[in-house]
Specification:
Length: about 290
């Protein structure tokens, strides 16, 4: 049986009400196989270590540490473990009327290899900004997903009071990170290209206390026009964007094992205390809490 390729519009990103149905942090041994199968919800499969082959319809990808696969209920898929793998798996729905998890195991359907190989991957899209449709990627590598996913797993396993609403919040954040990553890959508009010199400067030297006037001068525009254009293109003021870039790099350095004193100095902070306070203001967590979670 050959399943037709289909486009599925999930809805507007602002209307997402995700429900986490199952979350696990697990290991799999070489030659272990999941599928071919069709699941009743969506699954995000993230590899912490090892290697696995993922087939979604007729498309095939080899995933390694930091890589992810995302597939849904309309698409045959198969996971084959190539070497010992440690992974995170999250089953979810994008718009769940209830917060209560519904374990997918009892409604997973097996399918044949022929069905798998003859089918085409389904396309899942979200509506962005009221008009644009953004396709969610089947395979991707995005830094910073692991801490959010591990928090989802812990909430699912511990079932503390309010865990379902916390999982919805974390899953919403996770999806937003994936969407934002996809948006950065779109062809740039003429307006976005106008602020490229400022973005490149901030990215190259986030430790420098860039003034709006300096960034505007790099782009060749008046401060007022530049500030308006920058906010329109990024959704943030130049100052807030600089802070966000510093915290983004700080997360990477923290997960790489660097000491806070080194990170604070590298990113231009006068003290570890100021760095920690700035980090918590932006993320809701201290650097230590972020690294632990």
């Amino acid at each position: 049986m050959s399943l037709p390729h289909s486009d599925y519009l999930i809805g507007a990103i602002e209307d997402l009400l995700p429900t986490v149905n199952f979350a696990s942090h697990a290991e799999a041994v070489p030659q272990m196989v999941f599928g071919p199968r069709i699941i009743p919800d969506y699954q995000l499969f993230y590899i912490l270590s090892g290697e696995a082959e993922v087939r979604i319809g007729s498309e095939r990808c080899i995933l390694g540490p930091g890589d992810s696969a995302l597939y849904g209920p309309h698409c045959p898929h198969k996971l084959t473990i190539a070497s010992e793998v440690v992974f995170i798996g999250i089953h979810f729905t994008y718009r769940g009327p209830s917060l209560e998890p519904v374990h997918p195991a009892f409604t997973i359907e097996s399918c044949s290899e022929e069905t798998l190989l003859s089918s085409k991957r389904s396309s899942y899209k979200l509506e962005i900004a009221g008009q644009e449709e953004l396709e969610l990627p089947p395979f991707f590598t995005i830094p910073g997903l692991e801490p959010i996913m591990m928090r989802i797993v812990k909430e699912y396993l511990n079932e503390q009071p309010g865990y379902t609403i916390v999982m919805r919040a974390l899953m919403t954040e996770l999806l937003a990170v994936i969407v934002r990553n996809q948006l950065t890959k779109r062809p740039k508009s003429q307006e976005q290209r106008k602020i490229d010199p400022a973005l490149l400067a901030i990215n190259k030297e986030p430790e420098k206390n860039w003034s709006v006037a300096e960034l505007a001068a790099l782009c060749g525009y008046h401060v007022i026009y530049f500030s308006s254009l920058f906010r329109k293109c990024t959704g943030e003021s130049p100052k807030q964007y600089l802070i966000s870039e510093r915290i983004r790099k700080a997360k990477y350095y923290l997960l790489s094992g660097d000491k806070m004193e080194v990170i604070a100095e590298r990113l231009g902070y006068a003290s570890v205390h100021y760095f920690s306070r700035n980090f918590k203001d932006e993320t809701g967590l201290t650097p230590t809490e972020f690294k632990q979670q």
